[in-house]
Task: structure prediction
Amino acid sequence: MADDAPVGAASASPRVRVGTSGYSYDDWVGPVYPQGSTRQDFLSLYSREFSIVELNFSYYQQADWYLDGVRALSLSADPAFVFIFQEKTPPYLITPVQLDADALTAGREVNREAINLYRACTERGEWPGYTAGIEVISLPPWAFRRLEEF
Result:
C-alpha cells in the first residue's frame, strides 16, 4: 500500500521454483491443507510447500490499492475508482462499475495480508519455500493414470 514504509527486497540465487496458479481453494482442505484449516491459514500453509504462487491481481485488490495511493498523495480525501468493463466481441459495449464497500474491504484485507507476509519475510530473511537442498517431487495422479494407458 502507498503508506507502507519500504520493506526491502529479496535476493536469491537463480533456481527453478514450483508453485500453482492460486492457493485459496476450499476443496484443498484435506488433500493439501490439514483438516480444520481456515481461509486465513491458506497462504501460510501453501508457503510451507511451494516457493511461488501465480496470483491474479483481482480487480477488488486493484481498486483498494489505487484508492490508497490517491489518498496518500493527498489528491482526494474521498476518491472514486470506476472500472470500465468492455465486451470482447462487437459491438464492444461498455459498462462502468464501482465496487461496494464490502468488496473494497475484501481487497484491503488481501492486500494487507500480502504486505504483512512480505514484511515478515524481509525481517527474518527467510522466504517461503527456499531450501538448502534438493526437493523430491512426484508426478501428479493424472500422469500415473496416463502412463498406465500405454
